[in-house]
Specification:
This protein has about 180 residues and is of the alpha+beta class. About 50% of the residues lie in helices and about 15% in strands. The longest helix is centred in the last third of the chain and has 33 residues.
Length: about 180
């Protein structure tokens, strides 16, 4: 049993060394990767707001206003409503209503919709600015976590490089002259 354990431990050590060697380039760039991920997520958060602003602009460009009934069957991401459009069609948008915070099934609310695209509906009086606070908090929270993480990874890398770089010898003369040296 003792021989098997040693063999297993040696195999695990070899696997760990191989993994470390394979991931070394990633580890050297870890701080940059963390910052890159943070930037991508921040841009995506801003794009969510841009999309909401575009939807609001579309609704405002050809706005219809009516009363809608909040329906059962919604979830955290979708609150469904039923309303009668200006052309008499009874509509229940498949994507739900925009800015549904605080709506309860059976409740009646005033909604604004895009008459050319009646699937695009928002609760009257609400706009994309409703998302500014949550998105800002999300981005700040993201950087509260990723900022120090990237800083610590960069600091760790600099410390590791400083420990492996030998100190220059004063007695050693360079094999060639420095670029721009004057004779």
């Amino acid at each position: 049993m003792d021989g098997r354990f040693r063999a297993l431990r040696a195999g695990a050590r070899t696997a760990w060394d191989v993994t470390g060697t394979a991931l070394a380039p990633v580890a050297r760039r870890a701080a940059g990767i963390v910052v890159g991920i943070g930037l991508v997520l921040s841009v995506l958060a801003v794009l969510v707001l841009v999309g909401a602003a575009r939807n609001d602009a579309s609704i405002s460009a050809d706005e219809g206003t009516t009363v809608a009934e909040v329906l059962d069957g919604g979830d955290a991401g979708h609150t469904f409503v039923r309303f009668t459009a200006s052309d008499g069609a009874v509509l229940t948008p498949a994507t739900g209503v925009l800015y549904p915070r605080g709506l309860e099934p059976g409740q009646y609310v005033v909604v604004e919709y895009d008459r050319s695209k009646p699937e695009l509906v928002r609760v009257a009086g609400r706009s994309w600015t409703e998302g500014l606070g949550p998105v800002a908090l999300g981005v700040v929270g993201l950087w509260v976590v990723l900022g120090p993480t990237a800083w610590a990874l960069a600091r760790r890398r600099r410390a590791a490089e400083a420990a492996t770089v030998p100190a220059p010898d004063d007695d050693v003369t360079p094999d060639r002259e420095p670029v721009g040296a004057v004779r």
